[in-house]
């Protein structure tokens, strides 16, 4: 070594530079080791505490939320800032919670892996009252064994469509579970709760061995069969009931019952017979037959409704033969055709009645007629004139004639002959006899005073113009005049419907905005009216109905809750249930009040439903301080240090010391780099360079 390079000052400088180099290298190595240790702590430190921290720069988009494991979630404390933090739900065992449903009570089962007291079971359904005498729903088998004394019954034999059937039973063991099977007319079996879903309802008997059950109808008309089935499926008791609108039903076993209307003998299979009768419920007769209407005194509902009694007036035995007696009432008529129940075999009073109204009552007679023929032909040359009266379907505005007159003009008679008839028609008086064979006669009715719209026809046609000829062979001629009043304008009465709502309404019960009622009458009226929800008159306010009609009115109550009752009053009369049935007997306005009483509806209650406890999902917000520090460190450290810090900022971190460790390591790394640079500068100092050789 040259002397000038071994100078003490130079040696001290060289030693100082070497020490600086060594110190800088050591510091750099120490900082790198701390960074590695910090990274390992981030990845697998079981003792870290605190919420996860997402370290990103202020300009970067936050990293996706990472859901912690079950162990991490259990160890992590609650977040400190609810507005910016959402805790992700921990992974849980499927058996540890019960998902609530809308139809069943929810029970929360405590998680055995969590601390704290277990949750309690909360039922969403209110308790159902049970007879105190019934200890359990299912009684011992021997107590429910058939005894032979079981019964089942309904509160009525027939119901209007969409009404409720009340079924009751007795004679069963206490606390026995039974099935009530109701088969509809179409063969289907549905539940009675109004859902009409297929199935059979169950009931449990009381301590006295009785039960009651409500079954909702939905408009399927016909006969329903009820069977009460025991636990083994054995039928313990049966019964039936019917569902149908108010209509005529058979009343007299002696008669042929027919629904609808009829006005002529031809309509009941007696074409060619002489017809006499009344277009209303009044008496009528001709020279051969008389009919008398009176209060019903027969064996069927005596004292209720009206009856018809028929007598033969012709004094010659066997001349008058009764073919039919027809009595119309309600929506049908009875035909009496059996000679055993007709005169002269059965003399008055015969108690002929019309069909029952609504299946319960003998009604007033709306009209009647008798069909008969003469067994002995009239003498040669005799002309018989008959009258047939077709009544209107109600009370006409203009009254019908109380007497009919026809003029018979024969070419061999010196003057026309006046033939008269009663208000019900029948054979005219007199019979014109002793007419020579070949005589031509015309028959013309006097129609003066007939109501406008009356149709008059003759049988045979042309009787009023061309006439008929008296034939040879000792036979008479019978002709007929037909008066058709069916299309006459009728008297009408206004039917008003008013809604009345009984207050107060129970809590939670909502009144509908409007109600609807259906009105049907025998004159063809078939309308639906709407009524305001809080009460008042209907829309339309009134409905015109022909006088003489029978009407039924019913409200649509299918959407009403249990306990809601509907009753009807006609002109302030006694209340009726299910349907209002009334007759229109004059032009006076009829008011039907529909009373809705919701006060019997149980108040609605708030049901407590258990909600499953879940841990909310948490997304950590970026820390401003950490992001700023990391960015600054990256900027100060250049390529190597800045890249490491940026990569570290994107890791999912946990624990409270992570950020501090990273900052310290980064600072020390920067110090080491600075010392290395200083050492290089010290080595390159011109003052430390060896002097040029001499």
Give a description of the structure.
With 694 residues, the protein is an alpha+beta fold. Helices cover 14% and strands 29% of the residues. The chain has an 8-stranded mixed sheet with strand order 22-24-17-20-19-18-21-23, with no helix packed on it. A 5-stranded mixed sheet has the order 2-8-7-4-5, with no helix packed on it. It is elongated and about 145 Å long. The model is unreliable at 1-5, 40-137, 606-661 and 681-694 (pLDDT under 50).
Task: Give the topology.
Layout: H1 8-44, H2 70-75, E1 151-154, E2 158-159, E3 164-170, E4 177-183, E5 201-204, E6 211-216, E7 222-229, E8 235-243, E9 256-259, E10 274-278, E11 284-285, E12 289-295, E13 306-312, E14 320-329, E15 332-336, E16 367-374, E17 383-390, E18 404-410, E19 417-422, E20 425-429, E21 440-445, E22 455-459, E23 468-469, E24 477-484, E25 492-501, E26 514-521, E27 526-532, E28 536-546, E29 550-555, E30 565-570, E31 576-577, E32 580-583, E33 590-597, H3 624-649, H4 658-683
Parallel strand pairs: 2-8, 17-24, 25-33
Antiparallel strand pairs: 1-3, 3-6, 4-5, 4-7, 7-8, 9-15, 10-16, 11-12, 12-13, 14-15, 14-16, 17-20, 18-19, 18-21, 19-20, 21-23, 22-24, 25-28, 26-27, 26-29, 29-32, 30-31, 30-33
């Amino acid at each position: 070594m040259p002397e000038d390079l071994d100078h003490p000052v130079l040696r001290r400088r060289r030693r100082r530079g070497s020490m600086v180099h060594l110190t800088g290298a050591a510091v750099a190595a120490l900082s790198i080791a701390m960074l590695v240790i910090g990274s390992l702590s981030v990845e697998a430190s079981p003792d870290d505490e605190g919420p996860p921290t997402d370290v990103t720069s202020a300009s970067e988009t936050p990293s996706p939320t990472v859901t912690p494991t079950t162990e991490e979630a259990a160890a992590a404390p609650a977040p400190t800032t609810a507005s910016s933090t959402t805790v992700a739900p921990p992974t849980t065992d499927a058996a540890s919670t019960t998902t609530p449903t809308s139809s069943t009570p929810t029970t929360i089962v405590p998680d055995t892996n969590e601390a704290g007291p277990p949750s309690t079971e909360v039922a969403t359904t209110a308790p159902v009252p049970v007879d105190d005498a019934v200890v359990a729903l299912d009684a011992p088998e021997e107590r429910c064994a058939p005894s032979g004394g079981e019964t089942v019954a309904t509160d009525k034999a027939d119901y209007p469509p969409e009404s409720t059937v009340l079924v009751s039973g007795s004679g069963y063991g206490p606390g026995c579970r039974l099935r009530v099977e109701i088969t509809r007319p179409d063969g289907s079996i549905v539940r009675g709760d109004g859902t009409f879903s297929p199935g059979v309802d169950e009931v449990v008997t009381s301590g006295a061995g009785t039960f009651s059950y409500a079954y909702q109808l939905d408009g399927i008309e016909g006969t329903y069969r009820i069977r009460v089935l025991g636990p083994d499926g054995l039928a313990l008791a049966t019964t039936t009931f019917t569902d149908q609108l108010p209509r005529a039903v058979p009343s007299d076993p002696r008669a042929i019952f027919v629904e609808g209307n009829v006005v002529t003998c031809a309509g009941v299979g007696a074409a060619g017979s002489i017809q006499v009768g009344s277009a209303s419920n009044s008496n009528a007769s001709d020279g051969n037959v008389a009919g008398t209407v009176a209060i019903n005194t027969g064996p069927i509902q005596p004292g209720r409704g009206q009856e018809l009694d028929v007598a033969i007036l012709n004094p010659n035995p066997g001349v008058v033969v009764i073919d039919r007696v027809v009595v119309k009432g309600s929506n049908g008529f009875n035909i009496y055709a059996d000679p055993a129940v007709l005169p002269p075999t059965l003399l008055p009073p015969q108690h002929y009645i019309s069909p029952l109204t609504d299946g319960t009552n003998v009604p007033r007679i709306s009209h009647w007629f008798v069909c008969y023929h003469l067994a002995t032909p009239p003498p040669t040359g005799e002309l018989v004139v008959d009258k047939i009266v077709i009544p209107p379907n109600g009370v006409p505005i203009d009254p019908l004639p109380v007497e009919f007159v026809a003029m018979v003009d024969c070419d061999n008679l010196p003057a026309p002959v006046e033939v008269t008839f009663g208000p019900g028609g029948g054979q005219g008086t007199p019979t014109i006899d002793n007419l020579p064979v070949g005589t031509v006669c015309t028959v013309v009715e006097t129609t003066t005073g007939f109501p406008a719209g009356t149709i008059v026809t003759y049988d045979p046609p042309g009787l009023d113009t061309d006439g008929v000829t008296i034939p040879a062979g000792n036979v008479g001629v019978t002709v007929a005049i037909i008066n058709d009043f069916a299309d006459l304008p009728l008297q009408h009465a206004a039917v008003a419907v008013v809604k009345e709502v009984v207050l107060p309404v129970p809590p939670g019960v909502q009144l509908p905005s409007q109600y609807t009622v259906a009105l049907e009458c025998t004159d063809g009226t078939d309308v639906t009216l709407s009524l305001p929800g809080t009460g008042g008159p209907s829309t339309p306010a009134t409905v015109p109905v022909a006088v003489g009609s029978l009407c039924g009115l019913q409200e649509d109550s299918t959407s009403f809750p249990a306990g809601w009752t509907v009753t009807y009053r006609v002109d302030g009369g006694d209340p009726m249930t299910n349907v209002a049935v009334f007759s229109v007997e004059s032009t006076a306005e009829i008011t039907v009040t529909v009373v809705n009483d919701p006060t019997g509806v149980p108040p609605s209650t708030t049901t407590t439903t258990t909600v499953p406890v879940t841990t909310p999902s948490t997304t950590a917000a970026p820390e401003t301080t950490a992001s700023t520090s990391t960015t600054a460190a990256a900027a100060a450290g250049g390529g190597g240090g800045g890249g490491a810090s940026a990569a570290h900022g994107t890791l999912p971190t946990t624990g409270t010391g992570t950020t501090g460790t990273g900052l310290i390591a980064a600072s020390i790394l920067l110090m080491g780099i600075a010392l290395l640079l200083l050492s290089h500068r010290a080595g390159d100092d011109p003052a430390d360079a060896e002097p040029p050789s001499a």
